[in-house]
Amino acid sequence: MLPSASRMRRGADFADAIRKGRRVGSPTLVLHFRRRDTDAPPLVGFIVGKTVGRAVVRNRVKRRLRHLMRDRLQCLPRGSLLVVRANPPAASMRSERLAAELDVALERLLRRRGSGRTPTDGPS
């Protein structure tokens, strides 16, 4: 599981990441990322709405996402907030495919983090 120190619990942290952070989305997952000026460990929170399925399905999706994020926590900068929102296709997706979707979204999000709104692979 995700280390206790890295779990997002406060509603204010969720709101901060969603309202003020950058967003990257796919049909399966939407990630909200916000960097704060602190040396605290990164915090990760999960949102799995009722559209994903009944309680058993939602809890299974959350457990799978927590497990996947545990191995990817070291790639997040210190002091950052990350909210992972699962969309309905996440419920029926195999773990390997969900991991690939998460990796692509994280890579896009962290690549954009340093570049602002300008593309990184085009001429200046």
What does this structure look like?
This protein has helices at residues 11-20, 55-72, 95-113, and strands at residues 22-25, 29-35, 43-48, 80-86. The protein has 124 residues and is an alpha+beta fold. The protein has a single domain (4-112), classed as Ribosomal Protein S5, domain 2. Strands 1-2-4-3 form a 4-stranded mixed β-sheet, sandwiched between helices. Helix 2 (55-72) crosses helix 3 (95-113). It starts with 10 loop residues before the first helix and ends in an 11-residue tail after the last helix. Residues 115-124 have low confidence and may be disordered.
Structural class computed from helices and strand pairing? alpha+beta
- Strand order, sheet with most strands: 1-2-4-3
Shape: globular
Major sheet details? 4 strands, mixed
Pfam families: Ribonuclease_P
Keywords: Endonuclease, Hydrolase, Nuclease, RNA-binding, tRNA processing
GO molecular function: 3'-tRNA processing endoribonuclease activity; ribonuclease P activity; tRNA binding
Protein name: Ribonuclease P protein component
